[in-house]
Here is the input.
Amino acid sequence: MALRWLKARQTRYAAYAVAYIIVVIAAVVVLNILANRYDKSYDATSNKRYSLSEQTVKIVKGLKQNAAIIYFNQSTSFHDGKDLLDEYANLSPRVHVDYVDPDKNPELARQDGIRDYGTAVVQIGERKETAKSMTEEGITGAFIRDLKGNTRTACFVTGSGEHQIDSTDRDGLSQFKDLLAKDEYESKSIDLLEKAEVPDDCTTLVVAGPTRNYLQPEVDAIKIYVEAGGRALFLLDPPLDVGTSPIAANDALSSMLEGWGITLDKDLVLDFNPIGQVAGLGPEVALVTEYASQPIVNDLKGTAVGIPLARSLEIKDADKTSVQKLFDSSENSLATSNLSSPDINLRDPKNKKGPFTLAAVGSYSTGKPNAQGRFAVVGSSSWVANRFLGFNGNGDLALNTVNWLSSDEDLISIRPKPEDNRPITMTRAQLNRVRLTSQFGFPLIVIVAGVVIWWKRR
Here is the structure.
């Protein structure tokens, strides 16, 4: 009887079903164990919107000591910050995340100065910094402040027609100032005409597109600053003499840079790169897609930058300086020395054929250990102005340059990208086709398929 029951069809089917259930349950358990142990995800968005940036990865993975992220929120709202904070914890075993309810632990909240729910505090060693927002930029900014400690200040020279950091117009630098703030830099303007001396609190000096000549005391102040171990960024336009706003040649400043190994040619580079034309750029904008090997541009491989109204540079090592090229214009570029007319003769035999060096950096040997001066020169200033800073990799190039100048190479990377806004634009005819297809087409296909199957089975 028992043997007959074991051989029965129903018994075999039941055994198969039990075996299948056991296999499925075992697979689910194994997958959950692996998922819990190896937290992996794939971000399919075009700009990696749901992934931490290369800059954050570099900073967190490079930690030399343990770090804690303390998230203050109500217990029922811990999940608001969990996804983002888990990404930090998954980057390095040195990062630990604590969740604290300030209502249940008011003493700790008071100690850390917590006033609002949904606030994160990053602690590395004895230092604690509050994240300015519950975003990647806010939390990574707290990591940077913990690691750097001291305040870093970018000083923009003013008084000779330079771009202004508080100006929001097309030629202003307000967006550049905002980018620097995200990397925890303070920005301020200084006037070397009032006092021909660079303030001691300047981490980096920026000369952003002067339109008038610097006086010799100003140039001497900059020279003394860099040769004593200071850091400076020079954004110098070609001396165009057209329209109502001519640009001075600034021979004294150019002579100082030539003594350091960088000669500013008095020309205008026109780039007829076909890729730039596809991108909607005119020949007055040099499109750069290839770079030399240097920390500032190493992470920009595969990223284009646009340099409008640029002049060419000639570089060489000098007595106490070592100079490196950052990038050139394309082979389809030419340089004209006719800077007093808006009409350019492309067949002028005086035109020079590219490629041309557009940006370079150098180090000045002060003779003291760990006290070298650094300088960077770009033959254009408009690429950091509000109207062009948002073009592709321009913002990254600007921040990477300032980071290298201030010896913050660990911050050089590609920053978090803004969210893409990709609206679907359709004509009325296209909208009608989509509506008819979704409301009538697909339901009709399902109905017809159902009728056919019913007819065959009948």
Notes: Residues 336 and 348 are 8 Å apart (CA to CA). Residues 54-147 form a domain with the Glutaredoxin fold (CATH 3.40.30.10). The chain has four domains: 2-37, 54-147, 152-411, 426-458.
